[in-house]
Design a protein that fits this description.
This protein is mainly alpha-helical and 166 residues long. It has helices at residues 5-20, 27-34, 38-50, 75-82, 104-120, 125-141, 143-153, 160-165; strands at 54-57, 63-66. A hairpin with a 5-residue loop joins strand 1 (54-57) and strand 2 (63-66). Residues 142-157 and 160-164 have low confidence and may be disordered.
Length: 166
């Protein structure tokens, strides 16, 4: 199963709100922290609000926060809210039959998708937020990680061929 970027962004937005606790988080803050455009964050926040995961507060001092405790938000529920969770293969039912029953391939794929999401249901937003904050703390304390990140940021000058291609 391949999830869309939107689902990844949705989970990261929820983790960001979980780490903020009861504090309201502005969309602009989320956008800059997660390096996602404001338009995408607004779109995803709208979806997550309608699904009941986020509580939006309007106005100049507004923002968003979790509508439920992080431990009550299952990752499978988030995926169901953001992704299409039904598979339909065109022409999978027998072409001569007039009934609209799903073909065997559709049943198989729906069962596989249900199994995939049931694994995600075993994990909560609190699990991911705890793992995320633990990785941030470890990264800040580990001198090896800062050395590798400084290596990644130093780039060689562009060659003549790539400069011409631009």
């Amino acid at each position: 199963m391949r999830l869309t970027k939107q689902t990844g962004h949705a989970i990261r937005i929820l983790i960001d709100c979980a780490e903020a606790g009861d504090r309201l988080v502005k969309v602009a803050e989320i956008s800059s922290r997660l390096d996602v455009t404001k338009q995408n964050v607004f779109k995803i926040v709208h979806i997550l609000s309608h699904a009941g995961f986020l509580a939006p507060v309007r106005g100049p001092s507004g923002g968003v926060k979790l509508a439920l405790p992080a431990a009550d938000i299952k990752i499978g529920d988030v995926v169901r809210a953001v992704e299409v969770t039904h598979v339909q293969v065109e022409g999978a039912s027998t072409p001569r039959s007039k009934d609209k029953s799903p073909g065997p391939i559709n049943v198989l794929l729906d069962d596989a998708l249900a199994a995939f999401i049931s694994v995600l249901d075993q994990h909560t937003l609190a699990d991911l937020a705890a793992d995320s904050s633990r990785q941030v703390r470890l990264g800040a304390e580990d001198p090896a990680s800062s050395r590798s990140s400084s290596r990644e940021t130093s780039r060689k000058p562009a060659t003549r061929a790539t400069r011409r291609a631009r």
